[in-house]
């Protein structure tokens, strides 16, 4: 069994809270073993949500592997930006619309030329 859609988060306002989140990651590793789950650190990501220009930086680790820091991520089909913008999702919708529009135009052209 895999923990594909697991999410761990904490509001971070101080370095002490960063240490608490690191402790939560350690607890998650113990929980994983108790529940016969398997986390793949290479597939895990760390994202910081903030509107601040300077945020506290930290390296998050799972099994001594530094989690990749990202500025946007897809979770349960929703794109999330670290600055809480929706532009990535809007782009995906527009791209999907364009592909659908092209398909429909091609289909219309084929059906109109072949009675």
Q: Whole-Å distance between the termini?
A: 53 Å
Major beta sheet, strand line-up: 1-4
Separate helix tally: 2
Backbone shape: elongated
Overall tally of domains: 2
Gyration radius (Cα, Å) is 21 Å
SSE string, helices as H and strands as E: HEEEEEEH
Find the structural class using helix and strand composition: alpha+beta
Mean pLDDT: 76
Share of β-strand residues:
15-25%
The total count of strands amounts to: 6
The low-pLDDT segments are none
- Main sheet specs: 2 strands, parallel
Helix content: 40-55%
Structural account:
This protein is α+β, with helices and mostly antiparallel strands. The chain contains 2 helices and 6 strands; from the N terminus they run H-E-E-E-E-E-E-H. It has helices spanning 15-34, 87-113; strands at 45-47, 61-62, 65-66, 68-70, 72-75, 78-81. A two-stranded parallel ribbon has the order 1-4. A hairpin with a 2-residue loop joins strand 5 and strand 6 (78-81).
Strand and helix layout:
Elements: H1 15-34, E1 45-47, E2 61-62, E3 65-66, E4 68-70, E5 72-75, E6 78-81, H2 87-113
Parallel strand pairs: 1-4
Antiparallel strand pairs: 2-3, 5-6
